[in-house]
Amino acid sequence: DKIDGVVATFVDITERRRAEEALRESEQRLRQEMRLVELSRSPIFVWDFDNGIVQWNRGSEELYGYSRLEVIGKRKEQVLQTAVPGSSFSALRQSLLENGAWSGELIHRASDGRTLNVESTIELLTLNGRRLVLESTRDITDQKKWEQRRQLLLAELSHRVSNTLAVVQSMARQTLRTASSNEEFVALFEGRLGALANAHSILVAAHWKGAEVGQLARSQLAAYINEEPDRLRIKGNRVILSPGIATPFGLVLHELGTNAAKYGALSTPTGRVDLHWTLDEDGARRRFKLTWQETGGPPVRKPVRTGFGGSLIERGLTGAVVRREFNPEGFTCTIELALPDPEQE
Does the chain have fewer CB atoms within 10 Å around its N or its C terminus? Predict the structure, then answer.
């Protein structure tokens, strides 16, 4: 027999070979990563895209509190109650299918019920036809708490600064309205700013938890106490005022001292001031009463009009009952104020 011809057929299998090679490389890389999962102390686990968890390392046990036997075969989103801030777990799965990887913040639940904020890096790989997901997480729960606390502190700082600036603006406007000269304005305004600063210094030293009345009084009236201590007597039990009360209360004490030095008992060598307070407690009801009593000064005359200082004394403390008595023998100011229960402050 004689061969008249040969027919040769060639099939290009380059792409198939490339695909097979890529698959082998992917599978080899996944096996290596699986080995690293077992050895790592970082929380790393593997879950089947279509089924449950297949690998759960020591780091995962330590972070989440579940043993390997407790989670193998169970769906990771059910075990960890996975939540995706601003999105959903279904959207995360779709992103994995489209992009092969995902990273971002997740919320997981530990075995003891604790909520954990984690940074998660997720990669979708194929091994022997199975779609497996390699997930590594980093616990950022404490970091998130500190961030939330920082935001809270910034918001509180902004609030306090805004309030303080509003007080300063009001003081400047009212002082300018009542001052008879530039020199008087500067003296009055500087004194009031100093009183505000003193109150804030005490609050800052107490971590803004409150100010003790005696400390606040001695700070605001230090100039008169230092000159002649016997002329200004301060007496009262330890009472803590909340920040919202302490600041205007400090300004009120400053105005009382300023008025006494300019027109009242502290304007003469024989004058004296007695400052004392009490706190009546009946269960959750707490009633604070402070009395400013001047004696030995010049004859008292009731002012024709109420200036900024008088207005501040009468209306500076929200909810307070203020009585100013201009008796000929000496000016008296009584302030009564309901204080909140310390446990509710």
Answer: N
Chain center to CA of 30 = 45
pTM of the complete model beyond 0.70: no
* pLDDT tens readout for residues 22-50: 667 766 766 666 666 666 678 999 999 99
Query: What does DSSP say about strands 130-139 and 115-127: parallel, antiparallel, or unpaired?
Result: antiparallel
Q: Read off the pLDDT band of 170 (50, 70, 90).
A: low
- Rounded-to-5 percentages of helix, strand, coil across the chain: 50, 25, 25
Distance CA 124, CA 77 (A): 16
Which pair of structure tokens corresponds to residue 144? 């998130």
Specify whether the CB–CB gap between 46 and 131 falls below 8 A.
Answer: no
Alpha helices (H) in 51-181, listed in sequence order: 58-64, 68-71, 76-79, 89-99, 141-178
DSSP, res 80: T
Q: What is the DSSP letter of 242?
A: P
* Structural element, H or E, at residue 126: strand 115-127
**CATH class name, domain 146-344:** alpha beta
The C-alpha atoms of residue 38 and residue 33 are separated, in whole angstroms, by 9
Q: What is the pLDDT of residues 106-159, one digit of tens each?
A: 999 999 999 999 999 999 988 777 899 999 999 999 999 988 888 877 776 676
Q: Residue 201's pLDDT band (boundaries 50, 70, 90)?
A: confident
Fold of 15-139: Beta-Lactamase (3.30.450)
User: Do 15-139 and 146-344 agree at the fold level?
Assistant: no
For residues 118-138, b (16+ Cβ closer than 10 Å) or e, as one string? bebebbbbebeeeebbbbbbe
With contact defined as beta carbons under 8 Å apart, do 302 and 326 qualify?
yes
List the chain domain ranges.
15-139, 146-344
Can you say how many angstroms the Cα of residue 19 is from the centroid of all Cα atoms in its chain?
55
Q: Token match 């009055």: residue?
A: 188
Torsion angle of C-alpha atoms 158, 311, 238, 241, degrees rounded to 10:
-20
> Residue 133 in contact with residue 124, Cβ under 8 Å?
yes
